[in-house]
Amino acid sequence: MEITRGKIASAKKTVIYGPEGIGKSTFAAKFPNPVFIDTEGSTKDMDVARLPRPSSWQMLLEEIDYVKKTPGICKTLCIDTIDWAEQLCVEYICSKHGKSGIEDFGYGNGYIYVKEEFGRFLNRLEDVIESGINVVLTAHAQMRKFEQPDEMGAYDRYELKLGKKTSSQTAPLVKEWSDMLLFANYKTYSIAVDDKGKKHKAQGGKRVMYTNHHPCWDAKNRYGLGDELPFDYEEIKSILESKSVETKDTKKESEEKSELPDFMKVPDEVPEQIEFDTGTKDEVAPVQPPNESPKESKEVPRSSVFHVNENIPKALRDLMEEKLVSEEEIQKVVSKRGYYPEATRIVNYDPQFIDGVLVGAWTQVYGMIEELRKKYDVPFNE
User: Fold this and answer.
1) 18 by DSSP, 3-state: which?
2) Checking phi first, is residue 149 left (phi over 0); if not, alpha (psi -120 to 50) or beta?
3) pLDDT, tens digit, for every residue of 315-367?
4) Rounded CA separation 232/70 (Å)
5) By the 8 A CB rule, do 184 and 207 touch?
6) Residue 286 has pLDDT above 60, yes or no
7) Backbone phi and psi for residue 191, each to the nearest 5 degrees, phi listed first
8) Under CATH, which number does the domain 13-251 receive?
9) Helix (H) or strand (E) holding 211
10) Domain locations in the chain?
11) Cα(72)–Cα(169) distance, integer angstroms
12) Scanning 28, 58, 79, 323, which has its CA 20 to 30 A from the CA of 285?
């Protein structure tokens, strides 16, 4: 056993929550070299780097894995927002177990499944932290009636908008996981407007963030921050940038520009002719050279490079496009498992089968496709 002493430099886990429109995404964008996974589309008008918007829980997990396995891609991973990500998690759990809603499990069992899956999700983010990348989660705030067992009466307090019922256990997991839980809000003052002090009106509206626990909100930090600070990244900048965190994998490539995954690349050169060996002598139509601008279209759409039937549900279509999986490969794997005949098109599959099996167990499905690809015969011209 080895005993270590002193502080250990590492990436930071930050959770920022507050009412809508207060500037959580803008605040997160100021973290070092961020890449966003935008689950709700709130960064459309922001000049930030982002991965494709995840349409399923499985796609969200694959994007996190991509960030973890790609050294130098970023210094901060921002998931905006975590409560919208939780909705993808709930949909995944319901599809996996063939339920129409989380309440259909009965006796709170559905929330237990969500808690377990969310725990695995946070473990994935912990792997990102260990690779030297900061993680920022943004969330909306909700107000809930709170009553302490040893006190009389109830009062309102702000909490993370994770789960609509007290039986939901995802909010405590996120709070325990974080290094900083920052609550952003508008600070208002009640000003008397008459001599007797019976009439008041609200003034102010300054944006502030709270960093420590209070009866009226959840917050915490491990760095001795003041209870109330201006809602400005400069207030915590020294914590995030005081010491750069580099691992063996990122040290050599931290200053290099990372490459995009294959499914996001556009070919630099377009061949003058594309020929297919069909056993006939058909003429091949020439393709527009790259140096000449087409008359009717200025750019080649992505769908012309790899096309997936648009009638296939978007959650599955996104996963297929990411891995360049064809419809025929899905049909072969499905027929091999005995679910549908190989000639049955994906658009004719049961929607619950698509959500619960193809999307819900995509890792296993893609693993079977990889095994299938190993058996492909590659022709060679003598």
Assistant:
1) strand
2) alpha
3) 888 888 888 888 888 888 888 888 888 888 888 888 878 888 888 888 888 88
4) 30
5) yes
6) no
7) -110, 130
8) 3.40.50
9) none
10) 13-251, 313-375
11) 34
12) 323
